[in-house]
Specification:
It is built from four helices and ten strands; from the N terminus they run βαββββαβαβββαβ. With 153 residues, it is of the alpha/beta class. The longest helix is centred in the C-terminal third of the chain and has 18 residues, at 97-114. It has a six-stranded mixed sheet with strand order 3-4-5-2-6-7. Strands 1-10 form a two-stranded antiparallel sheet.
């Protein structure tokens, strides 16, 4: 998804300087990158677990909403996240679909706030399952993103 609206003039260097932000909730058990204090570099990229001025990539594990509230507005070039699916995995509690979507709205609002005008948000979700029926979550998220000015691509 891309932000819509006016785009300020930004040099290529400034665009590259925007960090990639991946707020990993406590549910993200598969991806483990121990960056600790060492801040390993991938080529010329600096990868850190917390927001730093010199970071190209921030892989944060913890409460996404708490973390996002510490990130400056319009400062992130790429956000990659996979929120809970609300399907009863060991790290989540299944709730009614409307309550689940409502619980994601503050996170979406903060993601859009920190996303730069040239930025992209990659929101990966699956299906909500009730008995034998499966509902693609994308169709429920579409109006939440569209109503906040994002363009789905």
């Amino acid at each position: 998804m891309k932000r819509s609206g006016g785009r300020p003039k930004v040099t290529a260097q400034q665009q590259l300087a925007s960090p990639v932000l991946s707020p990993l909730g406590s549910e993200a058990k598969q991806l483990r990158l121990d960056v600790g204090d060492a801040s390993p570099a991938l080529g010329d990229w600096i990868i850190t677990p917390d927001l730093r001025d010199d970071a190209n990539v921030v892989l944060h594990e913890g409460d996404a909403l708490e973390f996002l509230r510490t990130v400056p507005s319009d400062s992130v070039g790429l956000i990659v996240t996979s929120p809970p699916y609300n399907v009863g995995k060991e790290y989540e509690t299944t709730v009614a679909l409307d309550l689940y979507l409502k619980s994601q709205e503050p996170v979406i609002t903060e993601l859009i706030r920190v996303l730069s005008p040239q930025g992209s948000l990659c929101w990966q979700v699956g299906n909500y399952v009730v008995g034998p029926e499966s509902f693609p979550l994308d169709i429920y998220y579409y109006p939440l993103f569209k109503g906040r000015g994002l363009k789905l691509r």
